[in-house]
Amino acid sequence: MGGSLVMLAHTYKPDKHGIGGWFASEKLDGQRCIYVPGTRGLMKHEVPFANLNKDERYLEDYPCSGLWSRYGNVIYAPGYWLDELPETFLDGELFLRRGKGGRQDLRKIISDRVPDEEAWQDVTYRIFDLPSPETLLQDREINVPNYQKTLEGCVEWWINLARSLIYRPQPQTPFQSTNVLIHRLCVSSIYARAHKQVQLSFSTDTAKLTIEKMVEAISEVDGEGIIIRHPDACYTVTRSHKLLKIKELNDAEATVIGYVTGRETDKGSKLLGLMGALVVDWDGVIFEISGFTDAERVLGYKPGVLSTGSILTPTQWAEANPASSLPDYYEATGFPRGSKITFKYRDTNTSGAPNEARYWRKREAE
Q1: Same domain, yes or no, for 32 and 110?
Q2: pLDDT surpasses 60 at 99
Q3: pTM of this prediction?
């Protein structure tokens, strides 16, 4: 059913996912980690979801900390650090710092089975979810290269531990409620921190522009990207389309060679009479690109073409011919043929065309 113990994200696709009203947060480059109350102090072989692969290499066994990796391995932390965690089920990221070497240095700290108490003072647990035991420990098969396990009866096993929780997560609690609870639970903790969430505009177009700016800002400080989540999403142990990851975008320049007229759609687009998309040439790869404001979509006459009344105005032609290539004697007033634009894109497909390409800005004249 799942390849790990935790909820995983799909990749965001602007043309597929409507993200108005979703929550956005920085995607941290740390160590995914869950806290299962009641497992602190147990030996690893006593925990039914524990990954015992290759444990024979260790000469000595140590009590569990309650912290677990997404592959069912113990993360050993100092007692003073663990004492700061709210006693409930937690999911989040162990984090040291952004930038080059941050994750590598974190791995050195958390991989020691005898934790360095001083080094752990710089590690924080950025909590972004509260999975219920019924969801996290449900019966299922896990089969990935480093973690093969049949989870069966883990919920009942945990209930028999008779743990007293500060909060008992429920399977059907939506994320927007969970987010509020996380802030309340972490308000007095030094090391357990509620991961900052920003709710996006309910307008999908505005939300898209916001996350593009967020990704750009985070990349400038050597961050990895962002995660967005549907406000009504409940925790699941599958890869979910209600949890999406967005990493840093690439940018490149292309030359404007034409235009496609806009059209009205059943999704509320009202671009009839305007430019719908630019047609651009990127080193021999021809494709359409959008992402413009209404002001940038205005059409006009190509320089040197006079309006004599014998031809339709650009707006009239575009209204009469939606989703069509614009004749040579018309153009988008802000993007004449031959001008350069910069666009953002995720990666390229097998034919070399950019995936998720979106207009960013005009190249200034040199």
Answers
A1: yes
A2: yes
A3: 0.71
